[in-house]
Amino acid sequence: MRDYRGAIATQRQLLQQHPESAKAPDALLNIATAQSDLGELQAARTSLQEVIAKYPSSEAAAKARQRLGMR
To answer: How far apart are CA 45 and CA 16, in angstroms?
Structure first.
């Protein structure tokens, strides 16, 4: 649907209401993807770094590292 701002809002709501959810790392990764699609590259980078910092052992963090060019 390409409603990136709506997607970001929904994912942020999930994070706010359920910060310890198993879906939280993926929600942050989804936010980064939507930000990137909107051309908000610095915000996307910040979101990817947040995934790594908050959920370092998650699969989402591994994907975030890949997107940032980290190993």
So the answer is: 20
What pLDDT shows up at residue 71? Answer: 63
**Band of pLDDT at residue 18, cut at 50, 70 and 90:** very high
Is residue 24 within 8 A of residue 8, CB to CB? The reply is no
Distance separating alpha carbons of residues 28 and 10, to the nearest angstrom: 11
Q: How far is residue 40's CA from residue 47's CA, in Å, rounded to a whole number?
A: 11
For 15-42, what is the mean pLDDT? Answer: 96
Distance (Å, whole) CA 23 – CA 42 = 23
- 33: part of which helix (H) or strand (E)? helix 24-37
User: What is the rounded CA–CA span in Å between residue 32 and residue 19?
Assistant: 17
